[in-house]
Fold carbonic anhydrase.
Amino acid sequence: MTRSNPVLPRLLPVLLGALLISGTAQAGEAASAPAPVSPAKAAAKAAAQAAAQKEAAKPETAPAKEAPAAAPTAPTAPTAPAAPARVSDEELRQRLEARIAAVRAAQAEHKPAARKPAHVHKAAAVGAGAVAVAAHAAAGHGSGHAAPHWSYGGDGGPAEWGKLQSEFSLCGSGKRQSPIDIRGGVKVDLEPIRFDYRPTGFNVIDNGHTVQANLGGGNSIEVAGRRYELVQFHFHRPSEERINGRQFEMVAHLVHKDPEGRLAVVAVLMDQGKQHPMVQLVWNSLPLEKKEETMSPVPIDMNLMLPEDRRYYTYMGSLTTPPCSEGVLWLVLKQPAQLSAEQLAVFAKLYPMNARPIQQASGRMIKESN
């Protein structure tokens, strides 16, 4: 922004007067021989110079005096070059605001997405893990197959289950774990299991560890004077239990729970043979994607899942999946059921192997029906 000099207007009349006097004297000298300068002219010239010096020495803040009219014979002062056009303060402010707005818009466009604090992610992960473990414990063996970070092979395999989470510690340190190789059972007159099953609706889910069917209410068993309600059933290949060293093609685990939360699991061993109608009903309702749950259009009668001979072995053990909770009553039917090669192939395509290795019996009491 160009600033004008306030002294220049005050000096202009004085300088013009001095130039007039000087120009007249010089013209006379050129026209004739030098003549002595009169005292009056000398005094006038000296006065003009003194006045010019006095005006130049005044501060810039002194108010400018109105200049006297110039003599008609004074020469015209040269015209100063035009100053650049001044940008008004308002126009400059508008330009700056527009530029700042453009810079902020460019920064916002390239700004990375805000990240949540690490403690928020950690809290969410811990909460999800706790819910998964709680669901497993509440629903019983198999219902918590979605517990994180475990599998049937590799770094998350059965040998590592006890190290994956503190809630899984019994998988490595428990003394009454399942499955076991059932040998040397004590033959006694065991009370028959009273099955109170009736047709009921069910949903099927492939939970990433097995195929599982979740049932509605109204199905139960009674054993040793205690009543347990059927919650769900699922499959393992090959069978987790062994009978005198023999392993079967598959096994279905029927998970029951009493009002106090205690678990009783009926194990139905399976060999290859004729087609099993209830297994086929489950296969017909398999979801297209893992973790999805589909509703069967027809009910299932769990009585048809059982073999005709319902004598059994019994012992106290644990869940065969994490968290491997102990205190589970196992009821392993002695007679295997049958399913076709095609039905075996369907499950094998999904889960070639999803069985926990045999655990030490550690001298546990095993009873079997006569």
Observations:
- Residues 161-369 form a domain with the Carbonic Anhydrase II fold (CATH 3.10.200.10).
